[in-house]
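Sequence in, structure out. Go.
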Amino acid sequence: MFGWLVGLALGFYGVFLVPVGPRPGGVLLSVGVAFALAGNTAAALLVRWFTGTRLGAMIVAVGWIPIVLCFGVARPEGDLLLTAGTAGYLFLVVGAIAPVVVAMLGSPRRGLSATLATGPRGSASGPHPDQRPPAQGSDHRRPGH
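Output:
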């Protein structure tokens, strides 16, 4: 829930910040694009750290993408918040890709991806205790048999 709400807030405020920023040489350096890059990356890292899974990082995008797409559609009156310009397209691409990159980098602590990374049961730290050869000098029978 936290990641979804943070993504929603980042998308909401980011859309309003896209046309804002310095214009050295007449080129807009959008604060919204920087906000999407830093905010979505930081939020995805935080939620991934909280959950320990790759899916945790993607929850930020689940909140961010719908609100941004809603603001990118023109209303019947002609109002449009996210315009079809370089800054608008960069905002969309950077904001959507940042959680994906966070999800794919590094190995998760929990979840199916963490299980698959270690291989079959016990392969990360050696064979399972039932699969180890008996110690020398011990009875070769397993207890209870």
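Check: The mean pLDDT is 80. The two ends are 51 Å apart (CA to CA).
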